[in-house]
Amino acid sequence: MIRVLVVDDEALIRTGFQRILDAADGIEVVGAVSGGQALRVVRETRPDVVLLDIRMPDVDGLTVLSDIRRLPEPPVVAMLTTFDMDEYVETALRSGAAGFLLKDTDPEALPPAVQSLARGGTVLSPKVTRTVVDGYLNAGAQERPPKALERLTEREREVLVLIAEGLSNTDIAARMHLSTGTVKDHVSAILTKLEVSGRVQAALLAQRAGLLAEGTG
To answer: Rounded to two decimals, what is the model's pTM?
Structure first.
């Protein structure tokens, strides 16, 4: 059972997400709270996944993210956004967010997104990916992806493409017929060579470099 905490300042959003997720097999919503209650409820309920509003009036979502990431064995955190405040996206990425979901995400897509997050995958709504790739992570770093990607071995590039597709280490291991430990070693090497702090940033670099188009071609 995947335990999920929904954190949003709007009661309508909290209730909607809770109903959608509670109706899905294998998912239990352990709480639906506003930002000021988030850290306490995370400590009390120990969720596997937190869906966290990036901007709330009572407390900054980025502050809540940083506080959660400092906990022992922190849950996976994906940010919820309407994308009116997309200048906060890069900060969230660098603070350890595992993905971004728009608040108007198709209800049918929400449970699979949570399942992917719980397995260690990344979740990026297409609009989020386009905005980040075309905006903040591009600014002042036009040459970074090609140069950084040159450091990767062919196998590491294959793993990077699957990371960018949102697959977890277990999923990648099954797809490539490798052990999970071997995949973890590849992922660690990729993050080090690309000089990024997490899978989402690595996925965005792969997107910007066109690796997904190459992989599907």
So the answer is: 0.73
